[in-house]
Amino acid sequence: PTILCSFGLYLNESLDSFRSLPSSCGGFLRLSRPCVYVFPGGRGDSALVGVSGYSLLVNGGDQRKSCFWRLVRHLDRLDAVLITHTGADNLPGINGFLQRKVEELRVQEELRDQEKNQDWIQNLVSPEVRTFRSLTGSGPVQFRRSAEEAALTLRLIERLDLEVMPLTRGPTPEPLVLFSKLGVGRLDMYVLCPDGGSAELDFLRHRWTGSGCARGGVRQPDGTRAQVPVPFLASGAVLLVWTPFEPDQSPVRVLFPGNAPQSRVLEGLHRLRHLDFLRTPTAAQTKTKVSTLR
């Protein structure tokens, strides 16, 4: 009986978002200033980074019932979804959200030619998703049964025909400009790790079975090398920097370390040591002299 009750609760949480498909309260949230919402998601959190005109979802928590849904449903769109690592602590929430979008797509296809259902279709309110950034990139990736969450993510992304871009560090510490608007500001993303050609990332993409550890990459204080799960060694870590247009406003710096080892994160930050906004505990735009447009 206990097992059946637990299984019933799991199904109830998994299907909850589909039961509420018709809703008319989406698309009214407007963000007037930079903000970060953090959603407790079981063993892994999720976060929404928003500025005026741009929104970024980071990871999804370990619950199939997406912890971020009650807020995200009120956005017109998600400009990007960032998956820092491949794991059961961040993918289930993303998969639950994508499964809802697949269900919406199915309903739209079935009812498109029925005029009486047009109003109902318009009430499908999950936000549009524009791009994904993940460790897998858009190339072929082989995941076995033990990595079923990662495999499900890839299938759902393919079903929805979403653009996927790699989350890897380049040879030079140049930022990726996520958003830039005259009179508003600029949002930059610095990828701290992993390197695009790292052995750990190659192993994760093509040979990882979903379990086991890889030896190497993280040295202990006593000189030995620790056994660290492959998704941790290949985890992405990013630094987001918001530079407002107004010179009297201070930049905002947000670090998302993913599951990367601390040594990898510090190494990535060390590569950015020449940037003025990292030289002081509190960044000031008058000191950093960072232009909002290039």
Automatic annotation (TrEMBL):
An example molecular function term from Gene Ontology annotations: microtubule binding
InterPro entries registered for this protein in UniProt: MAP1, MAP1A/B/S-like_MBL, RibonucZ/Hydroxyglut_hydro
Domain of life according to the entry: Eukaryota
Gene Ontology biological process terms, A to Z: axonogenesis; dendrite development; microtubule cytoskeleton organization; regulation of microtubule depolymerization
Domain annotation Microtubule-associated protein 1A/B/S-like MBL-like: ranges: 22-286
This protein's GO CC annotations: cytosol; dendrite; microtubule; microtubule associated complex; neuronal cell body; synapse
Protein name: Microtubule-associated protein 1A/B/S-like MBL-like domain-containing protein
Originating species: Periophthalmus magnuspinnatus
